[in-house]
Fold this protein.
Amino acid sequence: MVEPVRFLHYVNQFFGGVGGEEEANIPVEAREGPVGPGRALEQVLEGRGAVVATLVGGDNYVAENQAAAVAALEDAIDRFRPGALVAGPAFDAGRYGLAAAIMCRAAQERGLPAVAAMHPDNTGVITLGKDIVVVPTGVEIGDMPATLSRAAAIALKMARGEDLGPALDEGYVPRGLRRHVTREKSGAERAIDMLAARVTGQPYRSEVYRRAFDHVEPPAPVEDLSETTVALVSTGGLVPKGNPDRIESGRTTEFAVKYSVDGLKEFTIEDWEAVHTGYYSGVVNSRDTNYILPLRSMRQLEAEGVIGGIHPSFFSTAGNGMAVRSARKIGEGVAAELSEAGVGAVVLVAT
């Protein structure tokens, strides 16, 4: 009889039942048995394994205190002697995904097989996807049972020392690894078979993994900028001194904040600063915050009649590690408001 695998499960503060964003800085703690989604994980294991402990950690804490978070993981490994770690599902929650990825990588480095579950566009995949095994998810929590079932199957296989097959066969996110294999047919024959299947409407699957990206049609050029109101948008994390609205410095998930520039000639280091953590902001914060958003130059163009005017407000967010879904949601909100205000063009300054 095969001995059931002992599982360690990592979840964030929300799924651990501690709280939402206000608890994102709680340290990692170990609890005996399954917690939250861990109960569903134990169900899909169907006796082949058991969740002996759950690690609950704050999204911010793990990213900002990796050494301490990994130390808590090591203590849990020593205490509960798990055979595998499952992290998530984090879906499209960027900071949760990154924390899950960090814990999985640390577990692997200590000889413990690990599987994370999150959306393929999650920050955790973008940052550490080549180092860990990730089961892809959608964006809805309703996908939890099916996702955990796939993650459990792969984790069981890894815990028993079995080799994983190709990503598309096993159901995990491709990591860009290539292995030498022997095929019954040559590449030319397989290509002809796929071509024949395609032209006859039969199912086939390419052997080359390609991510699908949205195609955005560019708008028509502005006919006369001298008659056009231009808005400013920045992903550089420009905020009033002290960041009064507490915008996220990276892995932004919520919104872009609107600030007034009505009558303002330029940004000054006394009144404005950058909170973006994806580049060194010391230069702009100590020398010239107009490097982030060139208001001074835009005012000059306005005075010269090159543009009709500057919209009285600008939108600011931090693009560092932002998931595609979050970027799309934020962009749609900003575009709708600017369109309603009669803005004819936008200067979007990235970093």
